[in-house]
Specification:
The protein is mainly α and about 210 residues long. The chain is built from ten helices and two strands, in the order ααααααββαααα.
């Protein structure tokens, strides 16, 4: 069973996202945008969305964990079935069924306060064209946060779920989030560490009176 340790580098993260953003090179999507436009979108994401994804990984992971009790209500018959369930969770099994699309439909958005991005439900609607353009990076950051916390650890997470399911143990969202977000992906522990490091950096820049 493969267990990924350590954070992915920026290049690895972008390659993972590119596999979702550009499944058919050279083909325009239904809105008529060219491949060049898609590449410009990835470039913008490299500048902004990567930081967003890191900031919201814990919150996205917690939201994802909350969906699995319902998904497991019909008890799977094998670990392979659980692995498929986990492996297709972020991208979805059909077009438009991805987790970031679900979050967006439910009103979740990425907001920024004091230089820190967070996932917020039903915030104030975008008021400028710049905000609207930034929403593309927000959507991509939710996708990447899910891939980093669920998809990247699919084998270990699926094995945990299968062990409980085959013994008839019903898990609630709190138990699943503790395992996935704190122990397996460490998304929430990593967030706490980043925030402490960011606070120290900001304090070091404040001149003494």
């Amino acid at each position: 069973m493969t267990h990924h340790t350590g954070a992915m580098g920026r290049q690895g993260r972008l390659l993972m996202l590119a596999a979702w953003l550009y499944p058919a090179l050279g083909r325009s999507d239904r809105s008529g945008r060219s491949e060049d436009a898609r590449m410009r979108r990835l470039s913008r994401f490299d500048e902004t969305g990567g930081h967003m994804a890191e900031d919201i990984e814990c919150e996205v992971c917690m939201e994802a964990a909350g969906r699995f009790p319902k998904l497991l209500e019909q008890r799977p018959s094998s670990e392979a079935e659980v692995l498929e369930l986990v492996g297709t969770f972020c991208e979805g099994r059909k077009r438009g069924d991805s987790f970031d699309n679900t979050l967006e439909k439910e009103g979740w958005r990425v907001t920024e306060r004091d230089g820190i991005h967070q996932l917020e439900k039903n915030p104030k609607a975008p008021s400028s064209r710049r905000d609207v353009m930034a929403s593309f990076a927000q959507r991509d950051s939710m996708k990447l946060a899910c891939l980093n916390t669920v998809k990247e650890h699919e084998s270990e997470f699926a094995h945990f779920l299968w062990k409980k399911s085959k013994h008839g143990i019903a898990l609630n969202s709190t138990e699943i989030s503790k395992r996935l977000c704190h122990r397996i992906s460490r998304a929430c522990k990593n967030r706490e560490r980043r925030l402490r490091r960011r606070d120290r950096k900001l304090k070091s820049r404040v001149p003494e009176l």
